[in-house]
Amino acid sequence: MDDAAVLKRRGYIMGINLGEGSYAKVKSAYSERLKFNVAVKIIDRKKAPTDFLEKFLPREIEILAMLNHRSIVKTYEIFETSDGKVYIVMELGVQGDLLEFIKTRGALQEDDARKKFHQLSSAIKYCHDLDVVHRDLKCENLLLDKDFNIKLSDFGFSKRCLRDDSGRLTLSKTFCGSAAYAAPEVLQGIPYQPKVYDIWSLGVILYIMVCGSMPYDDSNIKKMLRIQKEHRVNFPRSKHLTGECKDLIYRMLQPDVNRRLHIDEILSHCWVQPKARGLSSAAINKEGESSRGTEPSWTPEPGPEKKSATKVEPREEARPETKPEEDAAQVAKQPEPLGLSSEQLPREKEEVPPQQPPETHT
What we know:
It holds the Pfam family Pkinase. The chain starts with a helix and ends with a strand. α4 (110-129) runs antiparallel to α6 and α6 (194-211) runs antiparallel to α8. A hairpin with a 5-residue loop joins β7 and β8. It has two domains: 3-91, 2-Layer Sandwich (Phosphorylase Kinase, domain 1), CATH 3.30.200.20; 98-361, Transferase(Phosphotransferase), domain 1, CATH 1.10.510. 29% of the residues lie in helices and 15% in strands. The strands form four sheets. Strands 1-2-3-5-4 form a five-stranded antiparallel beta sheet, sandwiched between helices. 43% of the residues are buried. It has helices at residues 3-9, 50-66, 98-105, 110-129, 184-187, 194-211, 221-229, 243-252, 263-267, 281-288; strands at 12-20, 24-31, 36-44, 75-80, 85-91, 132-133, 142-144, 150-152, 159-160, 233-234, 360-361. By secondary structure, it is an alpha+beta fold.
């Protein structure tokens, strides 16, 4: 039977195509039982690579079945047919994804970004508390419901973290995700702490929310990595971001994994907590990193060496994957992006930086 006939027998009336890859596709459908539209991810086992079938698909199915959070896409049903097709019926992001939203409307105001980022961070805390990591956080994987609330989706790279005999989380060696959102340790092919990797991606996402552009140019990975390891983050002057917002982004885009914020520290940061906003810089430092060192929050880059970071957007890829800079392990193959295609975000016009640019961290 074709997909429409299979879905009809299960009580779904198939609708339009939402996205398609080499061995997976997403269709919209109307559920006669639920009385509303859903998304159906259809995976063809006959076309999928072995590592996906043996490792990633079982993980995704196991994790989707256990998650239940208001800011994570709901999974209503998972079933398989005798001809080797897997059907995953999920909540539909009726307002599209966050990348499309920002492309259309531009950067978010901080109050709107705060609401959406808090929803996303709450979803990540829920996952991390279950020792589940996403490992592919990006704007295309953040869907919006009818009220424009965030719904985290696409757990194709997710996994349950393992612990050693002492209870510490073991490092991951599978290098996956999108280069533009990948942490420096992943780009370098270093075994990494997967929860800490998720935090870097959160930093990139918040930057995109409030700036409408990418924090780093991933067209030159070596150059991007050098800038990241120097802990340089440029903010467009035209956005007039608050110090608290820039402080939070800067602390998430921390190349030192031992100093990068944890999810609980993000949720307790003064920018995320409206009642705590307006704290002094000393209070911000105490809340954010006093336990991790004494690195100053705001150290402008020296004027003569000041260079504006190129703002670039996620590029269309088969299934965006990080490829470590030189000799890291082979990247795991995954389905192509399903849903709205990734197109360029609005670019910030180059501006002449001031002598003492407050929007640059080093």
